[in-house]
Backbone:
């Protein structure tokens, strides 16, 4: 996982629960990196999961809930560093397609070693978009959070449903976004 | 709530981490720029390699173009040599043949220079040859670089001779050699030159083989020409042979009447002597005035005058017949010797047959039905109408003779468009011939007819005429049933 995500998680935790919380998460997880993150480097995926685990324990949140909350907070941060050109999208569905076709493509160009999720769009109507989320990290709840952050950002009200979820025994993860 | 001291401690730790992170980030950045530098470097190298490769490909492409062209062996060697010379920036270049037998296809003592292109220069060529070392005619797989011993004297601009061999066959090798300055010899360049080795080698061999095939072809053509003359000579000598038979026949046929004409004339001579004696005796009796009728009768008796007169008349008639026979034969022989002359007009076979029927009409008389249902649109043939008419006259007269009690003469035609031939069938319902007779049919003087009716030359003369017209003759005959002659004429292309 790219360092930017760790740097932003650090920011998120400090903003939400204070300096001491991040300190105690580091103490609780004893990570190989020692919690020294820089956005230009890449760190073991396990560190993000360990940190999220620790958050859910200390704050009594379900890990999925923790991922979702972080994702929701993270969106505007990622959006700020996103390549020029994505800012013309002011609709959730259009933006989601742009993530797959433009944003993550640009991310990949800058960091050839990143592992990005793949979206396969299954169905789209005026009010509903269904897509399969594909990633070995199975961060579909983190994804939900990012989408919620996006909706907030473009000022649309949506609901996100996990039609299929790998954490619940399904073979794949399928997400539906409904505009209300 | 955390105390200010605790807060401070947290911040201090955070700053320590941030510093560490910054250091890491900076060293990461250094690594990146090093990577970028290396990447750039290897990109440059790649670019150079690609450029070199495309240069090589261009060389290979151009050289292949020459090999694949239809240049002659010398032409190919010339263009390849001058092309390589330019490619390696050589001062001079040439190609030389090493062989235990000279191959004319490769021009010698030629040299190429930038200034003068291809020209003859014995000095330069012997300088090059002096440095080329060929032990035997086997292929040396790589380019050989030989230093010039005294470049200042030999060729001031050049310090090296590079050369390469191409085996043409077991006995001959072509050497491409170039005089170069120091800067033009590079392992790399020579490697590029190597890429065309196989192609050029097989291109040279192919041309040599082509040459050989051409030479062999010419030999074949010559052989065929010789064969054709031989065949013509054979045909000629066959003709001579049949002429021999003919001559023997002519001698026999003419000797016979000449013989009896001669002895007849001798007899007539004796008769003339007898008549003279008789006349002398009569004269003396008349002078003495003693001749009377009885005495004259006695004299006639004594000289056998009645017999002499009758016999002389017989003898004269026999001689006249004999001379007619000789003159008939001579007439036939004349056509024989003219057979095949003037075969060049487009003629109508139908016209030819119709006029032949008119001439033969006498022989056919009213005894024979004649069927000549030939269509008007028969294709024309190339031939001599007079001679062909004679052929048909003979066929019709023969048919008439074969049907002494009458019968039918049938004339039919058949066109074979595929083989471009026209066949004429002449059939009779006459006596026919057995196999023995059919064999002798065309021999000169073979005849079954009584003296005065046949010379036995008709079919042999006809055959000579038909052969000259490239006509195929087939005979089908059954004793007692009749005979069919099939004449197959080639149609003009
Ligand atoms: C609604 C919008 C977006 C969605 C749904 C989304 C989704 C995701 C998800 C689910 C991941 C986690 C990796 C995984 O699942 O394997 C991820 C990673 C990432 N995304 Fe996005 N993303 C969005 C927008 C952006 C934007 C605007 C950027 C800006 C450049 C961005 C850059 C990245 C980066 C750098 C990673 C880390 C990948 C790695 O370290 O291997 N994303 N994204
Ligand atoms: N149509 C025919 N039917 C039977 N016999 C034939 C026919 N034509 C030719 N012959 C035989 O071939 C012989 C040779 O013929 P030819 O050469 O024309 O000489 P000629 O007619 O003077 O005898 C004839 O004498 C005859 O015996
Ligand atoms: Mg005859």
Residues:
């Amino acid at each position: 996982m790219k360092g930017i995500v760790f740097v932003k998680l650090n920011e998120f935790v400090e903003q939400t629960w204070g300096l001491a919380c991040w300190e105690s998460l580091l103490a609780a997880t004893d990570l190989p990196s020692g919690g020294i993150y820089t956005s230009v480097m890449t760190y073991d995926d396990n560190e993000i999961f360990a940190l999220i685990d620790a958050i859910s324990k200390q704050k009594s949140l379900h890990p999925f809930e923790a991922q979702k909350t972080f994702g929701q907070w993270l969106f505007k941060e990622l959006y700020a560093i996103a390549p020029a050109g994505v800012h013309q999208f002011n609709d959730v569905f259009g933006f989601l397609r742009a993530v797959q076709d433009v944003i993550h493509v640009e991310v990949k160009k800058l960091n050839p070693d990143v592992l990005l999720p793949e979206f396969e769009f299954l169905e789209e109507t005026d009010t509903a978009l269904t897509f399969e989320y594909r990633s070995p990290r199975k961060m579909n709840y983190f994804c939900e959070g990012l989408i919620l952050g996006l909706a907030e950002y473009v000022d649309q009200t949506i609901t996100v449903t996990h039609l299929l979820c790998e954490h619940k025994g399904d073979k794949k993860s399928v997400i539906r976004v409904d505009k209300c | 709530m955390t105390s200010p001291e605790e807060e401070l401690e947290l911040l201090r730790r955070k700053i320590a981490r941030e510093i560490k992170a910054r250091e890491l980030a900076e060293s990461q950045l250094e690594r990146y720029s090093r990577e970028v530098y290396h990447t750039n470097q290897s990109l440059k190298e790649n670019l150079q390699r690609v450029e070199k490769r495309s240069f090589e490909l261009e060389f290979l492409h151009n050289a292949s173009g020459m090999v694949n062209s239809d240049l002659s062996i010398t032409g190919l060697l010339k263009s390849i040599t001058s092309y390589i010379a330019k490619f390696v920036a050589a001062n001079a270049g040439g190609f030389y043949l090493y062989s235990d037998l000279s191959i004319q296809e490769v021009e010698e003592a030629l040299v190429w220079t930038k200034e003068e292109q291809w020209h003859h220069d014995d000095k330069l060529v012997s300088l090059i040859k002096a440095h080329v070392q060929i032990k035997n005619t086997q292929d040396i797989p790589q380019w050989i670089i030989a230093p010039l011993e005294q470049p200042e004297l030999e060729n001031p601009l050049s310090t090296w001779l590079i050369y390469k061999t191409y085996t043409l066959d077991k006995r001959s090798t072509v050497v491409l050699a170039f005089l170069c300055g120091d800067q033009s010899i590079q392992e790399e360049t020579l490697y590029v030159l190597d890429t065309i080795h196989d192609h050029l080698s097989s291109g040279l061999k192919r041309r040599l083989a082509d040459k050989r095939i051409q030479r062999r072809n010419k030999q074949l053509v010559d052989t065929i020409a010789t064969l054709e003359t031989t065949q013509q000579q054979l045909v000629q000598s066959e003709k001579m042979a049949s002429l021999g038979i003919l001559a023997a026949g002519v001698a026999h046929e003419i000797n016979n009447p000449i013989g009896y004409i001669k002895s007849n004339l001798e007899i007539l001579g004796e008769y003339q002597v007898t008549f003279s004696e008789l006349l002398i005796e009569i004269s003396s009796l008349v002078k003495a005035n003693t001749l009377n009728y009885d005495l004259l009768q006695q004299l006639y008796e004594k000289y056998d005058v009645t017999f002499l007169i009758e016999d002389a008349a017989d003898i004269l008639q026999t001689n006249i017949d004999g001379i007619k026979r000789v003159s008939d034969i001579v007439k036939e022989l004349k056509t024989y010797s003219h057979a095949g002359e003037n075969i060049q007009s487009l003629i109508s076979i139908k016209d030819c047959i119709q006029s032949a029927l008119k001439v033969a009409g006498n022989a056919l008389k009213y005894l024979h039905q004649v069927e000549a249902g030939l269509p008007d649109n028969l294709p024309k043939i190339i031939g001599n109408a007079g001679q062909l008419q004679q052929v048909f006259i003979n066929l019709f007269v023969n048919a008439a003779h074969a049907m002494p009690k009458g019968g039918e003469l049938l004339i039919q035609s058949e066109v074979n468009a595929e083989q471009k031939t026209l066949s004429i069938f002449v059939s009779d319902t006459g006596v026919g011939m057995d196999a023995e007779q059919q064999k002798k049919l065309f021999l000169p003087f073979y005849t079954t007819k009584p003296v005065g009716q046949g010379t036995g030359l008709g079919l042999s003369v006809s055959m000579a005429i038909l052969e000259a017209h490239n006509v195929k003759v087939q005979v089908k005959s059954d004793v007692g049933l009749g005979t069919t002659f099939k004449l197959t004429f080639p149609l003009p292309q």
Remarks:
- Chain A touches chain B at residues 18-20, 22-23, 34-41 (CB under 8 Å).
- The longest strand of chain A covers residues 118-124.
- The mean pLDDT of chain A is 93.
- The helical segments of chain A are 3-17, 19-29, 45-58, 63-81, 92-110, 140-154.
